[in-house]
Amino acid sequence: MVAAISGSTFDCADPASLSEFWARLLGFEVAESSSDGALIVAESGTGFWIWFQKVPEGKSAKNRFHLDLRANDLEKEVARAESLGATTIARHEHDAWTWRVMQDPEGNEFCLGTAPPLGVWDA
User: In this structure, are 72 and 48 located in the same domain?
Assistant: First the structure.
């Protein structure tokens, strides 16, 4: 047997606010929220989850890990992400993939792109 990814955790200053941003961006729902943390899950209640954990220190450097998100209409989804509080910090275009490097409201980087590299998401 091998380990399987079941979820992820963001360290953050404001779990309630950041969980709401990510829930709206991903189409998830906030399943739990307190002053110490918040949990978002797929609306079906199954699958991948994200926990937002309150920490005292702020973000001080580039993420060492980030999410890569796919969109059918990249510009429309970038505009939607920005309307939710994201910021576009870089634009990239290659033969196989076009993507934007973005930051959530607390400065955590993520990528939002179209076609994946090397056909990873063709399935």
Answer: no
Count of beta carbons in the 10 Å neighbourhood of residue 62: 9
Query: Are the beta carbons of 74 and 114 closer than 8 angstroms?
Result: yes
Q: Where in the sequence is the domain holding 90, given as residue range(s)?
A: 65-123
| β pairing state of 7-12 and 49-54 | parallel
C-alpha 59/C-alpha 13 separation (Å) is: 9
Note down pLDDT in tens along the chain; length 123 residues: 898 888 999 999 999 999 999 999 999 999 999 989 999 998 776 788 999 999 988 778 887 889 999 999 999 999 999 999 999 999 998 877 899 999 999 999 999 998 665 555 554
Q: Considering 56, 74, 100, which residue would you say is the last residue of a domain?
A: 56
Phi, psi of 31 (to 5 degrees): -95, -25
